[in-house]
Amino acid sequence: MPYQELPGKTAPIRLWADPESVEEQALGQLSNIAALPWLHGLAVMPDVHFGMGATVGSVIAMRGAVSPAAVGVDIGCGMTAQLTSLTAEDLPDDLGKLRGAIEAAIPVGFNMHKRSVDVDHLKTGMRGWFEFWNDFEDLAKPIARRKKGRAMQQLGTLGGGNHFIEVCLSTDGRVWLMLHSGSRNVGKELAEFHISRAKDLPHNQDLPDPNLAVFLDGAPTMDEYRRDLFWAQDYAKRNRAVMMALLREVVRKAFKKVTFEPEISCHHNYVAAEVHDGQQVLVTRKGAIRAGDGDLGIIPGSMGASSFIVRGLGNAASFESASHGAGRRMSRTKARKLFGVEDLETQTAGVECRKDAGVVDEIPAAYKDIDVVMEQQKDLVEVVARLKQVVCVKG
Q: 307 among the known binding-site residues?
């Protein structure tokens, strides 16, 4: 559906959703963003919902400014997917052993590797291991002094919450690997350090929401934030690359002749310097993917719903963006109150996954209908493949 335009003080709010379906808290957040004096434009995706710092599903283009709280604490969170040569017929009836092998190879939740995993050894195709970690020494000193060991051991780990690793089948019976994770604890630490710094700056004292405090171009605080931000985004991409390499090793052991197509990877919680409307802007995608003309991206549903490999249509009105998933329709607390383990078992029937009280807040009913979300953004992306998980690993 075409977007609807809501009034904003500095720029209008372009909304790819029914305004009546957006909770009042989220609309208030969007109104505050639309009043920022540095704003160039604001696009809101159909998976929009209230979030910490800024609305999830928002694309915020600003001139010479960026808000660290709008980016959020999971800097670089995103998706990676990979098509295999396997088909549904190759998979065993009982997928419990495969799930167990994945969980043994890739730490989940608060767990981490006993020693760092060498990204070069796993041939992820990214720049050198030592070059990357040498840059760690230049990060914000409170983090660089005491966090390197943990950051190295967490590289290649899943975490918890809505992060997942999946084995999926496309509608034509092909087997895909897919995972969702971000910059782990080091990204959180860097984000919290810079969010606190931004709130204390004089130019941020009269904002409608202190969580929207910004750094400005030309200031040392902006240079330092961008240095740490882009390092954390690189870390998040490496984290997914290492996990995918470990996942491929698991699959190779189970299926000796398997081959793999190139990875598809996309951030959905990040900042990029881009040109829109003929102007250089900093675009914060908080729960949104880049969907430039021809860009491949990944839009997942919940742990019991379809996910999509998509190709961007380059819609300029959305700042060439699309949704990052289905989007929550209720809080985790509400989901735990409304649903129990039996509901989870019913809604994840046919999926080899955890079915216990620890993941009830991730129950499919806590999320919006992914098919409705996809219908609302037909002018932003086209579907390349529709996937449905048969194995889902969560922390």
A: yes
The answer to whether the annotation marks 300 as part of a ligand binding site is yes
Given a cut of 90, whether residue 223 has pLDDT beyond it is yes
Averaged pLDDT of the chain: 95
CATH superfamily of 4-329+367-394: tRNA-splicing ligase RtcB (3.90.1860.10)
* 133: exposed, middle or buried (Cβ count in 10 Å: 0-12, 13-18, 19+): middle
N-to-C CA span, the chain: 36
Measure the CA–CA gap between 174 and 390, rounded to whole angstroms. Answer: 12
Per-residue pLDDT tens for 34-52?
999 999 999 999 999 999 8
User: Three-state SS string across 316-331, please?
Assistant: HHHCCEEECCCCECCC
- Is 68 annotated in a binding site? The answer is no
DSSP string, 12-26: -EEESS-GGGS-HHH
| Backbone phi and psi for residue 204, each to the nearest 5 degrees, phi listed first | -100, 5
Cα dihedral sign for 371, 376, 377, 383? positive
Contacts of 154 (CB under 8 A, 6+ apart): 112, 113, 184, 185, 186, 239
Whether 40 sits among the annotated catalytic residues: the reply is no
Instruction: Confirm whether residue 321 is marked as ligand binding.
Output: no
Which of the residues 49, 194, 267, 324 is marked catalytic?
Answer: 324
Cβ atoms of 300 and 327 within 8 Å: the answer is no
Confidence class for position 126, pLDDT limits 50, 70, 90: low
pLDDT over 70 at 121, yes or no: no
